[in-house]
């Protein structure tokens, strides 16, 4: 007779010496883990609740402007330096970490400061509606009322400015796009599409092919230029004009447009017939947009007094930030470490937000990091569960925004119903439904 | 511009992700080398379902990714079986004439190691008949005598936690989530004590309790009493969750299914009922025994698939919980009502009369006609009748029997699960681990309304709705809501099958001799006696333009009977003489 009686060896299951960690043993047999799924769901629900509980995205507000903040720019290569220009002509360079001002020029321009940008060398360019471009040095000792290093005079009010990635050149937008050299007082070339009589609202250099330039204008166009050939290459006319544009930092041909029709669009410039994705969420015109340096997320600020953070390729349910005192957001920015978002709004403040609302600032231990990642994956896994999904998806928005969204939805529904009825009562095949992304582009010109 | 586009083209599509294969070696070298195609792991043994029917590319790739991940995780779990360190106990006959049931406790003790031998004990106590209960990790034991002696202790080290003389009838004891609290079903109420035996709560809602069960993942204390009310008390919030009136009177057999938290009750009239907190009536009710039910137990080794019941009619029955149509196996236990209990590895202990019998797993569940006892694995006589409780120790080869003279625990090789999981139940956990586990368990507490018969319901897809009363605007049921075949009326079913007779049947009773149809009054007048015989009425009811096989069969049978009757009458009618006494000489 073979007999063996089970006995556990205490030497295996107890710590060898005092202070040793207690050995753990695992048995992954599903029968040893009853209710594994139900317990995991409870954990997912708790994770979703905790995520919302700790969602305190507002970090700080940077004051100093007397009037509405119009434009924000970050310095390449610096995590902390951000310049902002306002409607009263004030220009401030903020240090984000110290929350102090590196430079404060209350009367940098007469009238609104419409564009700010940094050069690689760390110098600051600002342009205004007073038809001047001013060059500022950050090394200056005098931080209050500094004098510009040089002034460039233009013929018409400027709307936007952007610096070339490496060369000492910059481009401005007024009624045409002009390319300037830092050392010359007059523009070195004027770029314009032959038939254009528009006002250019924004201009940006491509981040990869640095001689390519894109602009959006008030005549509902998006135009591409090349500064080496010195002419406009292509132009696209859309249904509504765009307010801002931003080139993707990781994918060279992707461009993001913030449109007046409450949507954002990503285009692949290889194919202009339709956008790659429509981002619907704002309930008023989108005023500005900026990519995260990872190219996976971007931020937008809107006339509806909200800042929204989108992930690339997901056209709905963005993260929404708002406060009671924040007015129309005219500029929004992702910081270089992709952890923070800046917004400049009509109330004259520059606000710092966390890019992930419930992220913990400060040192996170590896165990905590693992727990956070586990919670993230739980939420992702159980997002289709009704209770979990509701918590994950739901965002409280201010009542006016909520009402506006409701109204907008109603109007769009009514429009769709009307369209359906019209189609129903026309001869079969006469009018076919057209996808939203096919409606956007009116014409492409070269 | 062309340079820009060339750059983008060269970069390719961003979403293209590195493929991760199951083979760790391949993963480690792949970055530096190119593995020949013949050696590449194509995820072949991962049985990933294809999602070719899904048109949306994004969705399809996500589904495939998820399915691959699930398959890989499953493969890893299967691999992890190799890492299980400890072997289960066993008792095997080597010669042809050897029988495991002939082996006695002293012989097992000889073979057992020093630690294992500590499981064999006799506690001589004089507090009436005893019941016992182990914690989930099998380390701590709570005992209670019917005359009010309750004690909890760590039976491995022999440290006593609390000993109480309650001075009144006690009927059951159970630990709560761990050994720091225990509940005792006393004469009138349920009382909760902490580890040191300090009375914490008197649950006055539980009146005259007879049995207690604690559902560890839901933090529910369930009790049943002489009044027949099943009550659930949430021990994390303290509220009485729900009370169900069973309507079966006093009940003294209760157990839980560990895998779906359903409470099984055995009643005086021989019924077994299954209860969940969210149903006011039993989820399942079956008549299991001819007399009162004395004990119920659910098999934890098969995921709660089998249930054993013992009744005062001296029978033990094993039921399949998926199909309640008759017991899988039944046999009679000698010596009156039995107590039954399943072990973690699927051995069934039956204590009746003066012996404890243990049967092992595959043979108990094999269906068998008649009342043959399954082959015996081990038997042990105990001279102190009655035997009132049997409990297997989790993660040990020990069986504890409560009886009139205290408790005895015997060694039963091969019944305990050898490998425990520290995250679920750890016999060697220290104080800190216990505390941490308590907090984690509270965080993971499952809501009581999620208790269902099928524990896999949560997180599974809702089944397609079959029946629907709502209609779309054009008066048709919505797509995908067709009535299933089984729910169609009979005539519709026959029509679908092509067996319905669509031709109009003309009843000969309805036509006058001249061929015209009779009116209702005329028909009534024609009515004869005997028209309303029940069989005829049945046939008339079913005469509905349908060739129904059942009705046809009955008609044929009737016809045959009539023929026989006629034939018999003919036989007798030929020679109508009466039988005479002289017939025997013919």
Automatic annotation (TrEMBL), chain A:
Pfam families: Sof1 (PF04158), WD40 (PF00400)
Gene Ontology CC entries for this record: small-subunit processome
Mapped WD repeat ranges: 106-146, 279-311, 322-363
Region described as Disordered: 1-28, 412-446
Domain Sof1-like protein span(s) in chain numbering: 355-440
InterPro entries (alphabetical): Sof1, WD40/YVTN_repeat-like_dom_sf, WD40_PAC1, WD40_repeat_dom_sf, WD40_rpt, WD_repeat_DCAF13/WDSOF1
Keyword terms of this UniProt record: Nucleus, Repeat, Ribonucleoprotein, WD repeat
Annotated SMART domains: WD40
Composition skew (Basic and acidic residues), residue ranges: 1-11, 427-446
Compartment(s) of residence: Nucleus, Nucleolus
Biological processes annotated in GO: maturation of SSU-rRNA from tricistronic rRNA transcript (SSU-rRNA, 5.8S rRNA, LSU-rRNA)
Keyword Cell inner membrane: no
Xref: SUPFAM superfamilies: WD40 repeat-like
Family from the record: Belongs to the WD repeat DCAF13/WDSOF1 family.
Name used for this protein in its record: WD40-repeat-containing domain protein
TrEMBL record, chain B:
Annotated Polar residues bias: 27-37
Cross-referenced PROSITE patterns: WD_REPEATS_2, WD_REPEATS_REGION
Region Disordered: start-end pairs: 27-51, 496-586
Pfam families for the chain: BING4CT, WD40
Biased composition, class Basic and acidic residues, residue ranges: 513-525, 556-586
WD repeats (start-end): 286-320
UniProt keyword annotations, A-Z: Nucleus, Repeat, rRNA processing, WD repeat
Highest taxon listed in the record's lineage: Eukaryota
Biased composition (Acidic residues): 503-512
Coiled-coil intervals: none
GO biological process: maturation of SSU-rRNA from tricistronic rRNA transcript (SSU-rRNA, 5.8S rRNA, LSU-rRNA)
GO cellular component annotations of the record: 90S preribosome; small-subunit processome
Subcellular location: Nucleus, Nucleolus
Biased composition (Basic residues): 526-544
SMART domains named among the record's database cross-references: BING4CT, WD40
Annotated BING4 C-terminal domain residues: 376-455
InterPro entries per the UniProt record, alphabetical: BING4_C_dom (IPR012952), WD40/YVTN_repeat-like_dom_sf (IPR015943), WD40_repeat_dom_sf (IPR036322), WD40_rpt (IPR001680), WDR46/Utp7 (IPR040315)
Function, in words: Involved in nucleolar processing of pre-18S ribosomal RNA.
Protein name: U three protein 7
Organism of origin: Favolaschia claudopus
């Amino acid at each position: 007779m073979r007999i063996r009686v089970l006995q556990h060896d205490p030497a295996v299951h107890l710590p060898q010496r005092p202070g040793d960690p207690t050995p753990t043993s695992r048995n992954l047999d599903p029968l040893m883990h009853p209710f594994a799924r139900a317990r995991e769901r409870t954990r997912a629900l708790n994770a979703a609740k905790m995520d919302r509980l700790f969602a305190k995205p507002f970090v700080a507000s940077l004051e100093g402007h007397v009037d509405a903040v119009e434009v924000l720019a970050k310095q390449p290569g610096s995590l902390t330096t951000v310049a902002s220009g306002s409607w009263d002509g004030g220009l401030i360079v903020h240090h984000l970490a110290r929350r102090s001002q590196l430079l404060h020029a209350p009367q940098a321009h007469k009238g609104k400061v419409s564009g700010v940008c940094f050069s690689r060398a760390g110098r600051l360019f600002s342009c205004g509606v007073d038809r001047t471009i001013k060059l500022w040095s950050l090394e200056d000792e005098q931080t209050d009322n500094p004098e510009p290093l040089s002034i460039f005079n233009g013929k018409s009010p400027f709307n936007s400015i952007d610096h070339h990635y490496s060369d000492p050149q910059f481009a401005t937008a007024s009624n045409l796009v002009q390319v300037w050299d830092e050392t010359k007082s007059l523009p070195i070339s004027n770029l314009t599409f032959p038939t254009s009589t528009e006002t250019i609202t924004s201009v940006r250099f491509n981040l990869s092919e640095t001689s390519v330039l894109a602009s959006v204008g008030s005549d509902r166009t998006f135009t591409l230029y090349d500064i080496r050939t010195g002419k406009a290459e292509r132009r696209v006319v859309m249904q509504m004009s765009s307010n801002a544009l931003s080139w993707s930092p990781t994918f060279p041909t992707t461009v993001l447009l913030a449109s007046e029709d409450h949507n954002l669009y990503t285009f692949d410039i290889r194919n202009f017939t339709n956008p790659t994705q429509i981002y619907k969420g704002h309930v008023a015109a989108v005023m500005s947009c900026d990519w995260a340096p990872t190219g996976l997320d971007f931020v937008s600020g809107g006339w509806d007094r909200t800042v929204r953070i989108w992930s690339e390729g997901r056209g709905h349910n963005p993260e929404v930030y708002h406060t009671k005192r924040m007015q129309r957001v005219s500029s929004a920015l992702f910081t270089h470490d992709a952890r923070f978002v800046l917004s400049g709004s009509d109330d004259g403040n520059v606000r710092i937000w966390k890019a992930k609302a419930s992220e913990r600032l400060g040192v996170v231990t590896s165990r905590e990091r693992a727990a956070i990642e586990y919670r993230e994956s739980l939420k992702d896994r159980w997002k289709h569960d009704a209770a979990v999904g509701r918590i994950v998806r739901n965002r409280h928005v201010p009542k006016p925004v909520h009402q506006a969204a409701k109204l907008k939805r109603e109007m769009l529904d009514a429009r769709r119903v009307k369209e359906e009825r019209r189609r129903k009562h026309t001869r079969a095949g006469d009018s076919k439904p057209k996808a939203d992304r096919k409606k956007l582009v009116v014409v492409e010109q070269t | 511009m062309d340079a820009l586009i060339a750059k983008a083209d060269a970069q390719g599509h961003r979403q293209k992700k590195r493929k991760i294969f199951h083979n760790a070696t391949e993963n480690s070298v792949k970055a530096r080398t190119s593995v020949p195609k013949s050696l590449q792991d194509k995820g072949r043994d991962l049985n990933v379902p294809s999602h070719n029917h899904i048109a949306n590319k994004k969705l399809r790739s996500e589904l495939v990714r998820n399915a691959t991940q699930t398959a890989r995780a499953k493969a890893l779990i299967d691999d992890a079986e190799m890492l299980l360190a400890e072997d289960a106990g066993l008792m095997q006959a080597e010669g042809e004439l050897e029988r495991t049931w002939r082996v006695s406790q002293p012989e097992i003790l000889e073979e057992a190691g020093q630690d294992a031998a500590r499981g064999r004990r006799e506690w001589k106590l004089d507090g009436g008949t005893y019941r016992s209960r182990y914690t989930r990790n099998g380390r701590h034991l709570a005992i209670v005598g019917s005359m009010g002696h309750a004690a909890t202790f760590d039976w491995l080290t022999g440290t006593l936690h609390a000993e109480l003389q309650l001075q009144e009838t006690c009927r059951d004891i159970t630990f709560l989530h761990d050994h720091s609290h225990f509940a005792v079903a006393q004469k009138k109420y349920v009382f909760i004590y902490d580890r040191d035996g300090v009375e914490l709560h008197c649950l006055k809602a539980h009146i005259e309790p007879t049995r207690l069960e604690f559902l560890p993942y839901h933090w529910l204390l369930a009790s049943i009493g002489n009044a027949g009310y099943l009550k659930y008390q949430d021990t994390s919030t303290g509220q009485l969750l729900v009370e169900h009136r069973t309507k079966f009177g006093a009940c003294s057999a209760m157990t839980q299914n560990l895998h779906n938290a359903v409470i099984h009750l055995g009643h005086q009239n021989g019924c077994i009922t299954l209860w969940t907190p969210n149903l006011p009536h039993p989820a399942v009710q079956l008549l299991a025994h001819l007399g009162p039910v004395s004990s119920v137990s659910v098999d934890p080794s098969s995921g709660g698939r089998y249930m054993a019941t013992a009744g005062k009619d001296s029978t033990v029955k094993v039921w399949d919980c998926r199909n309640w149509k008759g017991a899988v196996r039944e046999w009679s236990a000698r010596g009156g009502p039995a107590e039954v209990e399943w072990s973690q590895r699927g051995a069934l202990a039956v204590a009746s009369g003066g012996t404890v019998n243990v049967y092992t797993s595959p043979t108990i569940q094999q269906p068998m006609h008649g009342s043959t006892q399954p082959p015996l694995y081990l038997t042990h006589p105990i001279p102190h009748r009655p035997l009132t409780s049997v409990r297997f120790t989790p993660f040990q080869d020990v069986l504890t029997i409560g009886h009139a003279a205290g408790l005895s625990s015997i060694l039963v090789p091969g019944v305990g699960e050898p490998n425990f999981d520290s995250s679920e139940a750890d016999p060697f956990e220290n104080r800190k681990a216990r505390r941490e586990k308590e907090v984690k368990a509270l965080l993971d507490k499952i809501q009581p309304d999620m208790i269902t018969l099928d524990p896999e319901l949560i997180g599974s897809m809702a089944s397609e709705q079959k029946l629907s009363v709502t209609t779309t605007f054009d008066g048709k049921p919505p797509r995908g809501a067709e009535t299933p075949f089984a729910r169609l009326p009979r005539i519709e079913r026959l029509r679908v099958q092509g067996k319905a007779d669509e031709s109009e049947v003309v009843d000969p009773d309805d036509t006058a001799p001249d061929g015209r149809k009779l009116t209702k009054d005329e028909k009534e007048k024609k009515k004869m006696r005997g028209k309303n015989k029940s069989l005829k009425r049945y046939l008339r009811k079913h005469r509905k333009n349908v060739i129904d096989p059942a009705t046809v069969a009955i008609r044929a049978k009737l016809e045959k009977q009539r023929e026989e009757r006629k034939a018999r009458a003919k036989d007798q009618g030929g020679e109508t003489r009466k039988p005479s006494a002289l017939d025997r000489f013919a």
